[in-house]
Every structure is written in C-alpha cells, then in structure tokens.
Amino acid sequence: MTAPPRLPDALAALRDTLASTPLGLATPDRDDARRTARAVIDQIDDYLLPRLRDLDAPLLTVVGGSTGAGKSTLVNSLVGATVTTAGVLRPTTSSPVLICAPVDVVAFSGDRVLPGLARVTGGPGGPGTVQLVPDDRLPAGLAVLDAPDVDSVVESNRDLAGQLLAAADLWVFVTTAARYADAVPWDLLRTAQERGTALAVVLDRVPPEAGTEITNDFTGMLQRAGLAGARLFVVEERPLVDGRLPEDQVGPLRDWLHGLAADQEARAAVVRQTLTGALDSLEQRVAGIVAAVEGQTAAADDLRRAAGASYAAAFDGIDEGVRSGTLLRGEVLARWQEFVGTGEWMRSLQGQVGRLRDRMVAAVTGRPAPGEELNGAVEHSVERLLRAEAERAAERTVIAWRSLPGGPGLLDGVERELERVSPDFPEAAAAQVRDWQGAVLDLVRSEGADKRSTARLVSWGVNGAGGAVMVAVFAHTGGLTGGEIAVAGGTTAAGQRVLEAVFGDAAVRSLAARAREDLRARADALLRYEQDRFDGRVADVAPPPTAAADLRAAVRALAAARQAPTGTGR
Ligand SMILES: Nc1nc2c(ncn2[C@@H]2O[C@H](COP(=O)(O)OP(=O)(O)O)[C@@H](O)[C@H]2O)c(=O)[nH]1
Ligand SMILES: [Mg+2]
User: Fold this and answer.
1) Each residue of 400-456: pLDDT tens digit?
2) Separation of 180 CA from ligand 1 center, angstroms?
3) Does the predicted TM-score (pTM) go above 0.85?
C-alpha cells in the first residue's frame, strides 16, 4: 500500500482540483457552488496551509461584525491607542488593519498568511492590501485584525470580510444591542458554528438600563444556535474617551486575549479547535460542490439529449418525407407526368429519333430537356424538405432549452440565431442535394456501362434515367392519396418497368436503395452540423466527465492524510 500524502500536499491537491473544476453552466446552484469553491480555496491558502506549516505562529484574532457595530473602536480600545480608523462615515475600514507585537511582525509580513493580500506599513493601503501595524502594547503571540463590515454595502468589502474570517484562529464577533437580531450576524455565527471556529462574541453598545434583559435575550439566541460555548462579552454604551471605550468595558476582553497569548496550552487549544473544525468542514463543503458538479453534468446531458431528440426527429421527418411519397407531390409530380405521361421518353426509347427531337425542341424553345426539369424539381423539393426539418429541429431545441436547467444561460444573446438554421445551411443543403443527384447519375451511368442496354440508356438520356431512379426512391406511394396515387403510381410503375427493362429488376431495386441510403447519409451530415451548434455550446461550459470523481478522490486523499500519524486527525 502506498503511503498517504502529507496533509499539506493533500490540501494543496484539493485546492488545485477545485480551482480547475469549471462550473460554467448556469444551473440554479452554480453561484453558491462557485462561492463555496472560492471560499474553500481561500481558506486552504489563507489559513490551513500557513497554520499547518507553523503551529506555533501567533494567534490571529479577527474582529468581525456588522456595519458600525464598533469594531474599529473596540480594536483601538483593546490596544489602547488609535491604530485603526473608526468613524460614522461608511464604509470606513475597507483595507484591513493587522496589529501585532513588533516581534511578531515577521510572522505576518511574508505571504505565509493571506498570500493574496500585499502588506503595507505606515498608513492604509489601497484595495488588496493589509496594513501592518506593529505595537508593543500587544503581547507577543497575539495579533488583532480589524476587518471590513460583513454586511458592507460594498460587495468586495463583504467578500474580504468573509475571507479574513476564514483566515482567523479566533473570531471576535461584534454585534450591537440594536442590531443583534439581524440576519447577517447570524449567518456568520452559523458559519462559525459549522466550521467549529473558536469564537468570542461581543455584544456592544448595550444601554446600561436594559443590560440584563438584552443580554438574556441574546444569550438565549446563542444557545438556540448551538453557540452556548462561545465566550460572551457585554460592552455598555458609554461616552467614548479619546475615541476609545472606558477601561472597565474593554478590560475583560483584553484580559482574556492576553491570557491566551501568555498560555501556550490555551493558545494551542484555540488553534487546534479552529484547525480541526476547518478540516472537518472541508468534506461537507466540497460535497456540496461535488453535488453541483454532478448537477451540471446531468444538466449538460439533458441539454444534449434535448438537441439530440430534436435532430433525430428531423432525420426521421426527412426519411419519412422521402419514403412516404410526399416528395412526389407538387412540382416533382408535375414534371414526372410531363416526362412520362406525354410518352415523350417512351418514344425516345425507340431510338435516336426521339433524342434528336428532344434536342431540337430544347434548342428551338430554349427550354431544358424534360429530364433536366424533373431533376430541378427533385432538387427543390428535397432542399425544401431538408430545410423545413432542420428549421423545426432548431426551434424545438431552443424551446426545450428555455425550460431546462442551464439552458437559458446558453441561449443568452444567441437565441434568435440558434432558433433558425445556420446561415450557411441553405447553401450547404443545395450543394448536398446536387451532389446526391450527381451521385445518382453516376450510379445509373456505371450500372448502365456494363449492360448491353447501354445504347438504350444513351437514347433515354442519363438525366432521364437518373430522374426516374430518384422518383423510384420516392415512389413508395404510401403518402399519396386518391387521384395522385393513380397518376403517380401508374406512371411510376410504368417508369419502373422500363427502368427494369434497361437495368434489370434487381439492379433497379439496388439502385433505388443505394440512392436512398446516400441521401440519408447526406441528411445526417447536414443535421449533425446543425446539432453541433448546440452540442458545442454545452461542451464549452460543461464540467469534464471526471470532475466529480476527481474531487471525491481529493477529499478521500485528504481524509487518509489526516488519519496518518503525521496528520491532524479528528
Ligand atoms: N458612544 C459610543 N460610540 C461608539 C461606541 N462604539 C462605536 N461608537 C461610534 O460608532 C461609530 C462607528 O464605530 P466604528 O468603530 O467605526 O464601527 P465599525 O464599523 O464596526 O468599525 C463611530 O462614530 C464610533 O465613534 C461606543 O461604545 N460608544
Ligand atoms: Mg471599522
């Protein structure tokens, strides 16, 4: 048995697998899954890998909470100096401030923690930075980070706040007497609970006269949320001194934090709780992403199936149109009657005279010989059939996609274009039909070449014979009714008899079968090209077939690494 990977390697592998898993189909759970994937990747980079690399690094305490809760004021009060900006103007803290003892600066200056955020000193940096403030009023081993509002009106601030909380060894979660029942704080407290993050809660700005009542209510809410174990600090609303809380209000929290910094065991216990909780939560969070990936794979299958069914129906429609005799209606029938019914070609069979006369008629009147007109009629009618079916398939696919998960996203901006045949379809279809007719003529020619009846074929004209074979392809008269059957059936039968006289019975059947097969193959190629417009769009965004299995394997490898002696087990 091969040794399990080391825990950091397993985490890095999981991170890479997540980063390379596309969630391109706009399924309902796509955005959630993307956010979760981003959060897991960030937590691996920002917290888990750095923490595993150095279990004794200083405790990173992130002060988070809702807008105007008093986070920055609390941080300044904890340190005992103005190290971060508090204020009524929102949003105030958009670039986070990390305060630590000067000896700990080295632990936070590199990219060990939060590698995506550049460090700045001496003043606030712009977006994408962390301001590092060394202050010897903080004990070694304890760093405090003032984070942006978790409910900031600025989305990038909210995201950053979430990312910073995920990088914390310890959350100090600040809410107020007026705001603690809001949804956002509880969403975050639930996250802390799910991830087993070490947590202290500060109930800030509590009016002294209602302190007990509010505190009891809040404690009850914490208990019901499964957070009875969280350490609670109540801070009364008092006039600020130099922008800071009175000592008696901030003292207990500061003492507790300093105590953690001083007590190696207690600090290690906090780190272990958050680390284990974060590792435990990965499995479940990735399971949610796996479900979304599988949802995307299934949605992609459904979308492809819908297109496949529409185009299969179009193929059947074309085949049916060819076999049912529908193609013999209208112009083709008229030309066929002209060609056969006048007996012109019958006479032309008698010998050179007829052929000569055909040519003379064509020369004098400028009209193409009847065989060519028949072929032209066949061409139009087959083209029309191909186009009608391809048009219908495109429309059917678009209608199906509108109500399938992920479908509307793929149609976005291209719906008008996709619900018609592709712009070059008419030309491609015309070329295919002409090629088919050419192939039928070639068939007739090569079939005739080894017959004694070549002379008769020549007198008949390959065009005429080819037209007759094409009509024979359509001559399953099932679709014709009444008089049409009599005319088409009778004349077709007459034509068929003469064809048989020229080529022989079996040869005519085989000619017709080969010609029909050839036409099916061409219709198939045309439709495949049309369908590819839809399939291609799905393929561009669908997860690769192994995506879900790869993620599962990465989670299994992580579990194995945690069970190994060097891992951080449960
Ligand atoms: N009187 C009083 N004002 C406070 C208290 N905490 C915060 N403030 C004021 O409330 C506003 C917002 O505080 P701030 O610390 O910037 O909140 P943050 O958004 O959570 O960082 C500032 O004007 C603070 O001076 C407090 O306990 N008492
Ligand atoms: Mg602030």
Assistant:
1) 999 999 999 999 999 999 999 999 999 999 999 999 988 988 887 787 655 555 555
2) 15
3) no
User: What confidence tens digit (pLDDT) does each residue in 482-504 have?
Assistant: 444 445 555 556 566 666 666 77
Q: What is the pLDDT of residue 376?
A: 84
What ligand is nearest to the CA atom of residue 89? Answer: 1
Between CA 71 and CA 83, with CA 168 as vertex, the angle to 5 degrees is 40
* Residue 192: Cβ-neighbour burial (10 angstroms; 0-12, 13-18, 19+): buried
Does residue 86 have its Cβ closer than 6 Å to ligand 1? yes
Whose CA is closest to atom 7 on ligand 1?
A: 70
Report which ligand 1 atom has the smallest distance to the Cα of 236: 27
Residues of the chain with pLDDT under 70: 1-4, 87-94, 339-370, 448-462, 475-502, 565-570
Q: Which helix (H) or strand (E) holds 174?
A: strand 170-176
| Distance separating alpha carbons of residues 489 and 510, to the nearest angstrom | 20
Alpha helices in 44-152 (DSSP H): 49-53, 71-79, 105-109
Which residue's CA lies nearest to atom 14 of ligand 1?
70
Closest ligand 1 atom number to CA of residue 204: 27
Peptide bond into 91 cis (omega under 30): yes
Per residue, what are the HEC states of 517-545?
HHHHHHHHHHHHHHHHHHHHHHHHHCCCC
Tell whether ligand 1 has an atom less than 6 A from the beta carbon of residue 149. Answer: yes
Burial of 524 from C-beta contacts in 10 A (0-12 / 13-18 / 19+): middle
Two tokens at 295?
């949802």
CA of 139 to the centre of ligand 1 (A): 25
With beta carbons less than 8 A apart as the criterion, state whether 41 and 162 touch. Answer: no
Residue 110 CB neighbour total at 10 angstroms: 10
pLDDT confidence of residue 353: 44
pLDDT of residue 523: 96
Q: How far apart are the first and last CA of the chain?
A: 23
Residue 183 Cβ contacting ligand 1 at under 6 Å: no
